[in-house]
Amino acid sequence: MVQENKRKLITLLLCCCCLLICGAASFAVSARVHAFYYPWYHNMTTDGNWDHWADSTHWAPDNLPAAFYPMLGPYSANDSAAVHQHMQWLHDAGVGVIASSWWGQGSDSDMSVAQLLDVANLYGIKVCFHIEPFGGRTGTTAKDAVIYIIDNYGTHPAVFREPALGNRPIFYFFASNDTPDYQWASAWDSIRGTSHDAVVIGDCFDHARILAGHWDGFYNYFPGQDYSNWNSHASWAQSNGKFMVPPVGVGWNTSAIGGYGPPTIERGRGEYCDTTWSAAAQAANAYTSVRYVGITSFNEWHEGTQIEPAVPTSFPEGRTYLDYLPDGPTMYIDKTASWAAVLDPAASGKVQCEDYSGGTSAQEGVDYHDTTSGNSGGQYRNHRVDIQACDEGGYNVGWVVAGEWLRYAGVQVTWTNNTEIRLRASSWNSPRQVRFCDGSLSNTILTLTVPVTGGFQEWLTLSGIITLAQGSHTIYLVADEGDINFNWFEVRPYDIVAPLMPTNQAAVNITPNSVRISWQDKSFNEMGFKVYAEPGVGPPTTLRATAAANGVYWDYNGLTPNARYAFQIAATNAAGDSGKTANTVTYTMASSPSIGNNIACNKSVGVWYPAGTTFQFTNPAGFGAGTDGGSQYKVSRYTYAWDKNPTHTFNETESYWFSGTLSRTANQGDGAYYLHLRSHNGFNAPNPVTLDYGPFYADVTPPTTSASPPAGVYNTALNVSLAANESATIYYTTDGSAPTTGSSVYGGPIPVASDMTLRYFAVDTVGNAESPAKQEVYAILTENGSIAEVKGLSDGAPVRLGDKALYLKSGGTGYIEEPARFAGLRIEGSISANAGELVCLTGVLRKPIGAEPYVQLSALTAHGLHSALPVGMSNRAVQTNLADGLWVTAWGTVRPGSIIGNSYYITDGSDEAGIKVITPGPPSVSDGQFVPVTGAAGFDGERVIYIE
Which of 328, 444, 864, 939 is least buried, going by the fewest C-beta atoms within 10 A? Predict the structure, then answer.
């Protein structure tokens, strides 16, 4: 996780996890600088839960309820290594006192106090208590909390007591305005002068309430609150015997937890930090009532006020955290150290670079060397050294030119262990080299490179470890290259103890031939990491490499694909090695799919294959680990997809192939097919390099043929053309026999001069055959002659008639007659002519039993008008003498009661019954009406006249 990024190179925190010597324990921190500290974080490794790193909408370790991501990852406040690192950072920042959040007797924060005191004491850091509004907090229960803490922890040497205030312990009370003032006054009055007397500081800038609550001092937790009026508050406190703790801070950001509280305060690359610290330093300089400065906070990650190191971090689900870039993770530790030195120079242990030797009588070439005349900044000292006001408070040396140097006499080394020199510097646009010399300019003891900081007031802290004898030293700071600024440096003890064992070792198979071995750096003083690794399942005994200090991974290269390797890690420094991590085994990544190596097919790419073709895929290298005994590398399994897409995005829904032959068919119709492959190793980890194997072309659809003109009865000879819907060979016969690939091959129109049964089928270029063969029956007719001759034919006989008169048409039914008026005939089918025209027709004679015969039309054409008139006939003549289909006119009176549906009877007295008239719709006549009727004579169980 992100613990890997701990301590970037620009802030070389080569400091120990536990300063065991007394000299180091009291060195370079200020009791005037207090930082609010939160011991409420838990993690699964130490505590079995993720308290304060998870809630209903956040989960550790990826999605934390914070806008920034800690360098230590989601740590536990009960993890000794994490607490050691916190105290080291606080020590580096010059913080002498932490105000630890406390939520009541028996709470998690109470249970962490013992370890916190013990570790803080090792770093010379004192602890006071920030009393939160625990359940049931009143003035009385708050007083009881003070008594409990003093009784249980008050004798510990790390508990902060203020000598100038009666050596009493100090307590901050958050949200003190939530409790009535009289309760506070009563509580504090009751312990004054007793063994439980304490310095109590209320979270309130309301002067009247401070007096009413009998508070010793006041603060406000919100960073920078009312900073423009801090001088006014400090003045009031001094006049009223109180003291004030101004709340400096770096910003505010609760966006990750819903944005509660005040609006976001942007950090602005440290500008807000410098603004609030500057206001606090001014107030402290002007008023003795400003005894302490409170930092909100060291590690309140939820509210984004932390100065604890954070690192740039993002996770696959899209969560990206804020960071301190372009500065390093310890940016605010270093800024705090600079301001702590301004607030309390005597306690900081830092040497301000503008305080070179010689005082007001400093001489060029003796106490300093500056190549330009005059003080370009015009500040602080009246020599040639260029000094300006510093954004981090106080002054800094600027306009440094290559070859210039500064001398500092009387730098004391009181310890016997190693020495760390830390330098606060800046470089605008390119790295610059500087040196520290001891005793003379020729005795270089440390060389540092100041990286690009992005501006002359953008500061970074560099450090290095050296050996210096006890006693007084004259230190020279030499600029080998120019365009840099110097703020301060510090000479302090550095103790080497064996490093802590790294944890959370893991491996990522980054290629088939390499593995990235990673770990979590739990130590703070390692000089490197030993990596033990070898083939097999271990534990390994071969030392493969020593990774650099602060390293978090090493790449194991030159490996066999899809093979197992074991590894262990140990931290190391001059004091020895830590224990090894647990033995861990991983597989390298499997080889990516490679045609001919670990994938092959029995069919060729770019070739068309017919229906029923099976594409058989094999793995020449075989499935499993290692090689096939030669140069081809196995895979443990493939995931695959078989489809018609040229590319594929794998999403874990694909099928598995881990043995034997993979057979695929063209199951999605005609077209190009592809096999998409991704290989996996023995741990099922995929190789991201995939293969799209293809195209394999499949034509699985037989061709379809058609004939033009189609089957039917035709009056004259014709030519029949055959066509297929794709490139194909057409085979045919003309005698009605089944065609085969040995039959005639169609090459052009087929002549049809007489009746013919044509059968045919097609075979496409890949061999798909049309089945069954198609058939077309053609009849070429000669004219039958008269209607009378047609009526004499048998049922189903072909009919061809020409020059007949069409005299009645109703939908698909009509009547024709000889123009000479001696016979008529009903026709049915598609009648594409109008009554009154001469027509030619072909068709088939139909003779239904008990009904008049008719022609089922195949074709009908019109060719001019005819002038025939209907035959006038009596009812009796229609009944006895009329030939079917004759066009007639009859007259008569509508017989009363005969109008039924679409028919009625007329009578003219010549026939007793009259003649039945059938109409296409309800007749528009009435009983007794005399009407003429013109229509076709026919038979419908009796003789009738059909009219339109």
Answer: 864
